[in-house]
Amino acid sequence: MDVRVLLILGLLAFVSRSRAKTDSNECLPAKTCGECIQIRPQCVWCKDPDFKPSRCDHQDSLEKAGCTALGIENPRGTITIDKNKPVTNRKPDVAEKLKHDEITQIQPQKLTLNLRSGEAQKFTLKFKRAEDYPIDLYFLMDLSDSMLSNIENVKNLGTDLAKKMQGITSDLRVGFGSFLEKLVMPFILTTPKYLKNPCYPGNCTAPFTYKNVLSLTSDGQAFTREVSKQQTSGNLDSPEAGFDAIMQAAVCTKEIGWRNVTRLLVFSTDAGFHLAGDGKLGGIVRPNDGKCHLENNMYTMGHYFDYPTISQLADTLSENNIQTIFAVTQPFRGIYEQLSGLIPKSKVGILSASSSNVIDLIIDAYKYLSSEIILENSKLPKNVSISFVSHCKNGMSQKGENGRKCSNISIGDEVTFDVEIVTEGCPSNGKSETIKIKPLGFNEEVDVVLNFICECECHKDNIPNSPACTDGNGTLECGVCRCNEGRLGRLCECSRDEVQTEDLDANCRMGNSTDICSNNGECVCGTCECKIRDNPEERYSGKFCECDNFSCDRSDNKLCGGHGRCVCRKCICDANYTGSACECPLNDSTCMASNKQMCNGRGVCKCGVCTCTDPKFQGSTCEFCPTCPGVCAEHKDCVECRAFKTGVKKDTCEKECTYFNYIPVKKKEDLPQPFDLPNIPICKERDALDCWFYFTYAIRNDNVEVHLAEGLECPSGPDIIPIVAGVVAGIVLIGLALLLIWKLLMVLHDRREFDKFEKEKMNAKWDTVCPESLPSSLIHITPKDDPSLLFNKSLLASTQDFNPSRCDHQESLEWAGCTALGIENPRGTITIDKNKPVTKRKIDVEEKLMPEEINQIQPQKVTLNLRSGEAQQFMLTFKRTEDNLNAQPDSLSSEVILGNSRLPEGVSISFVTYCKNGVSEKGENGRKCSNISIGEEVKFDVEIMAKGCPSNGTSETIKIKPSGFTEEVEVILNFICECECHKDKIPNSPACTDGNGTLECGVCRCNEGRLGRLCECNRDEVQTEDLDANCRMGYKMDICSNNGECVCGTCECKKRDNPEERYRGKFCECDNFNCDRSNNKLCGGHGRCECRRCICDANYAGSACDCPLDTSTCMASNKQICNGRGVCVCGACACTDSKFQGSTCEICPTCPGVCAKHKDCVECRAFHTGDKKDTCETDCGYFSMKVVKKTDLSQPLYHPYITHCKERDANDRWFFFTYALNNDGNDEVHVAETEK
Hints:
α5 packs antiparallel against α7 and α8 packs parallel to α10. Helix content is about 15%, strand content about 25%. The protein is built from 20 helices and 76 strands. The protein is extended, with a radius of gyration of 52 Å. By secondary structure, it is of the alpha+beta class. One of its GO terms (molecular function) is integrin binding.
């Protein structure tokens, strides 16, 4: 074991030394001190004049090589703090008012770093959130018409927000801006009428892109006045020009009035946003330039520049230290949360329907944003890197990208960041660079000046034309010669014209070695001159002096063992010798066994000694095998007679069993083990008395040794009890396992049956998508290619106008009120035009028919009327005609394969064969039958289906024929593309608003220039032809939510009989009377109904405002809510501990002591005995009592909160009763009628 440890330690030392040497090699190629110090921080330079080894290396290597302490050049990086104003600490008991430029939140403010390549410089930044820090808040609002109700709640934002934020800051300034859309088509209508009033025939202000309504001010009344003046406007599409507005609000610092304080921008909208590239729709292709373009507080270049990109917006907000709060409605929450993930220091808040929660939203978002500190840095010079480690509250530290931030930072909290900056090489050609580090959303920053160490100090002390450089042919700098033009060499001793390369030392290095001339010579102008040894017999040789004749291995203290010669550090052995030191003779006579085999054929002879290839064998010629099968049995009798004087050899023991050394041991555990003596078998054998004994057999130093354990192991009889118990337990466990398996299989079966039932129930539902509307220009009955869809042709002019979708399933149309005569449902048909039967000859009549008289396929001509999606099927019969009844089928005529001519687009065909022996196939195999003999008949099912209306409704003809036969089937395809009612159209019908359309199948097909269901709209007055789409709240949704009519693309909501009840909203989707009710009152009489949702009064909650928030009814006598055992829900206690009951969770009928508590009263009430028999009427009337049979006492199964009691009465007899609370919360006692 000790030898192994020493070997491992030696190996580790060698690897460590090799690694150190390899690392140092990185330093060696440097030729100047400046190059050296840029390789690695561990590389230093020796400037001693007479230093000959490589000058660039690790310091310890140079010192070992003889470099003096003064000769070491090892400049290190430094950090200097230039400005270190402490963070502001205000005293809580001093009401001090500081200017914003007097507040410091980050320390230090300026540092200078001297950086050496590869050497990191670290410093610590401290950040503390200052108390009462000023805030500039700019409210940017979408003024599209849908935001009309929000203005009222925003106008008081200035004064209300200042009051609510008093605990955060006393210096709050607010401003207001609004935005709409770019003033180009297709974003707005550019006709003069709509440029003045885009809401015509309604009333609203002219459209605009962005305007700064009020610059930042501390006058809350001014904010209220200006916002109150604002009017909404309108545009065509839903997304708005919010990005344009954010960009202008961010870059127009002077116009908005931003200070160097906390800057908040609140972006409020109920719509999406346009991105860069959307401007192309309006012909705007110039990218946004990110500059301020406000004239008279209006954005004037919206028509010239495209919308900003998201990355452009994020960079601009970050550069201007603006934190963004997106106050948006619920439908757009997802898209703005994705946008917030791309913009640093931004937060999304959900705006209520009328912006009533905007102030709370802003305060919550500000607290969230200001509580997170994120450090960012300006662009770094090339090859310079920076990393952060944060030390936040509660001792939490983070690295990587998370090392830049700390969260949940309250006002007055202090956190620190460790900053590490490192450079590789010499960036910027050694010129100084300045980077900035700042917390996102804050105006303060840290300046970090970076100076790069690119040269050593000794560079300044150079000596031009120094005599040390061979006759003044170079400049002596840092101990080395920098040669003049035309000179080369370490001392400038070589002329450039005399050598092939400028790197002379490279010619003197062998391969990738770092040693010059293998450290055995000197490099003279690129050629090695080897050293001369004191012993003239010992010589260096080779191009790089890499060889010698004296460093070979030795044996018996002789070079190459005296049996060879040393050539280039390697022994060349004489005949009959081998090995690295020629120490191994090739004579193998010592390995020859008695059977004349080398090592008994079980090994190889190496240097005159057998090495056994099979590890089981031992001995000088691999003759012994102590672990081979039969070793134990072979020696068992001798071991038994020697040890115990028993066995078959007890009488001949002394003669036959003396060939081994017998060594007794006490126990079998004391026998030699395989790890003590390799290849040793441990034998276990029975003696004459059937007892076990143990021994080992081994060969040591050519002697046989047997170790034997003296103790015997004799068998004992079986223990019956454990065996019987084990069998019984096994039977029980197997029975239980079988029961569990049966139960599991039943559960799986039931679950599978239930899933099957659920699936069939789901499949029973309609699964076909009907069109949401039927445009007047499309009367085809092929929507979604579903033949089960029908069309209703009820006349619009009739008294029973049909308003739902006219195209639907028949039962849906009938349920919606369509008459039976109004249903249009043409179906496909099949007509057989030519059906000549296949030829059948009589066997006993020899008849000769002409070819044209023979018919092998039937029918010959079919006409199909095809409706889209509805398959038509017919059968073809084929029979091979008899000509020679004894003829055998051949490989060609015995196979019938049907082919068809080219199909029209949208038409498909499929076949199913019915061949001999009941064989039926589909797909491509459905076209053919094989092994058809003469006279045999086969059939084919043919299915043809059309999708849509192929060939524009023109009839097509296709042909089906068996390959190799002349007969064919002609199939005429007619496509059903119109309904029958199409023929009964009425041009210029009065039903179509003054004859402005043709009445066709119950709908109006409008004349040129007219639109609408009844052609009531002028095309010039609307923006889209699909008017109903403008009246739907979403895809497939009802027109005007079924609460109004769509008039030229605008919903006109129904009026209710009750004037207090109203529908409203762009799609009539809201009303004020369909909210939940409580006590038959709308919103329980404690709130108002807005858009089918109750807005509850203070102190009420719930969908019907039916839940009072007052907890006085839940207050127990100990002044605790529900006695601390429950929660107050809608004014009633819900006990969290199921044992407790009562109005304030005060009663526990099942708690210990219940029986003893009520025992005396139950005894006096039931039996008129006991301690309370005299005061029973006054003390024991608090419960209702019922006398029952004992078997009728309530059980916990039927009453979960019941206590069963068993008590002794005054006569020492047992009686039984139960105690519980009934459904009314009153005490109830049941007593067993008989005493025990």
